[in-house]
Amino acid sequence: MDVPEEAGTMKYVMMIIHGDDEHSAADEAGAPSMDSWFETARERGAYDLGVRLDERETARMVRVRGGRPLVTDGPFAETREWIAGFALLEASSIEDAIDLAQRNPAAHWGRVEVRPVHSFGGPILGEE
Q1: Among 92, 114, 90, which residue's Cα sits nearest to residue 104?
Q2: How far apart are CA 37 and CA 54, in angstroms?
Q3: H or E, element range at 112
Q4: 84: number of CA atoms within 13 Å, CB side?
Q5: Of the candidates 117, 48, 110, which has an alpha carbon nearest to the alpha carbon of residue 83?
Q6: In the chain, pLDDT over 90 holds for what percent of residues?
Q7: Which of 16, 54, 95, 125 is at a distance of 20 to 30 A from 117, taking alpha carbons?
Q8: Residue 65 burial class via C-beta count within 10 angstroms: exposed 0-12, middle 13-18, buried 19 and up
Q9: The dihedral sign for the CA sequence 91, 94, 99, 105
């Protein structure tokens, strides 16, 4: 669904989550192409930016405890999932953002999390 210019929109982060969960070859084969997803997102004016992250083995977790930094390898030591990338979307509602997310191929072989961007009371990224 197209978002009229006069309608209020919000920013949403769409996180691409890879994991060891099972999906079938049919799920993967039925996924739309990434090119078609980008085409749809751009036609709607919903795609602001996206980032594909490097492999999870290159990640480092940083925490500060007792005033000392603790740096460990890997993304999430207690889980089999990791964030593979994200896109910043602009949509008129969470439902519109979800509609776009379900068209992303990653939703067919992984998971896609959609979350509103918090503005901390200031302007939202990309707004004046």
Answers
A1: 114
A2: 21
A3: strand 111-116
A4: 14
A5: 110
A6: 31
A7: 54
A8: exposed
A9: positive
Which residue, 95, 53, 94, 90, is CA-closest to 75?
A: 53
Q: Which two tokens stand for residue 66?
A: 């007792």
- In total, the chain counts a number of residues equal to 128
Q: CA-to-CA distance for 89 and 50, rounded, in angstroms? A: 9
pLDDT in tens, 71-93: 888 765 566 778 888 999 999 99
Classify residue 67 as left (phi > 0), alpha (psi -120 to 50) or beta. Answer: left
**CA distance linking residue 66 with residue 27, whole number of Å:** 47
